Amino acid sequence: MRVILIIAFLLQVSFSTGQEISENTFTLQEALKTAFSMNPSYDRKKLAYEVKSAWHFWLFRIHKWHTLEEYQYMLGDLNRIATLRYQSGDVGFYETSALLEELADIQTSAAISANEIEISHNTICGLLMSNDRIIPADSVLSLYEIDKGTGMISPVEITGTKETDDSLTSRQAFIHAKSVENKQLELDNLFIKLQFYNAYGLAHAETTIHTAQARFNAEEIDYFEFVEKLAEAYRIRLEYLEILNNYNQNAIQLEYYAY
Question: What pTM did the predictor assign?
């Protein structure tokens, strides 16, 4: 998914709110430079952490919204079909109710995701001190690579505030080292999960969608079984996005506190 999708979405939001549109397209590096220039007195390391975290969270939310929109499109006219099937006696009330509840849940999640994109956009604008619409130059959501720089910074507790070197005790340094070690292990676990999805999960989801479509078109399965197969596939896709976002957020946090 490229930047054209993001522009279309942001234009839709702007038209719906009646706002004048002034756009700026940024890469992450350009966003960082802008944030530094607009906040010269702010801690650059902390600001970089905040911008990177917000930026990757923004891309995650865009991908989640796009996936939910695609899911809704694949379901077609589920509301009408489920109601007609119930009225004709093909399915019971409970099965129909469950399907309609599932559709409503997807629609609700998509609507929330759209607002969450706006929340992330506003966060980015705040960090860059910008009143304009900001568009990511590329919306690819990839694995974040930690910049280790020149090495470890002065030890601090990973969830605490920074202290001067003079105030740090050997105990604090030891606790900090172990906290960093645990954070790295947590990151490793998320990476292992991502390997599973990249090797098997996403391919299975793609195969499930294509197979279900082909079987439904050939009338080998009915519409309700087709919907069940879609639910399985899109659950996998959404789980993958959540884990990828968790990995990136943890990696950015580890970079900030450890390097």
Answer: 0.83
